[in-house]
Amino acid sequence: MKQTIYIDVLVGINLFINYFLLLAVSKFLSLPVKRSRMVAAAALGAAASLSILLPEINLFLSLAFKLAVSGLIVLFAYPCYGIKQFLRELAAFYIMSFAFAGFMLALWYFIAPQGLIIKNSVVYFNVSPLLLIILTVVCYFIIRLIHRITGRQAPENLFCRIQIDFNGKSVSCAAKVDTGNTLTEPFSNAPVAVVCEDCLDGIAPRQESGKIRLVPFQAVSGEGLLPAFKPDKLTVMTGKEKIEVHEVYIAVTKSKLGAFSALLNPDLLQKTSA
Question: What is the DSSP letter of 239?
Answer without folding.
Answer: S
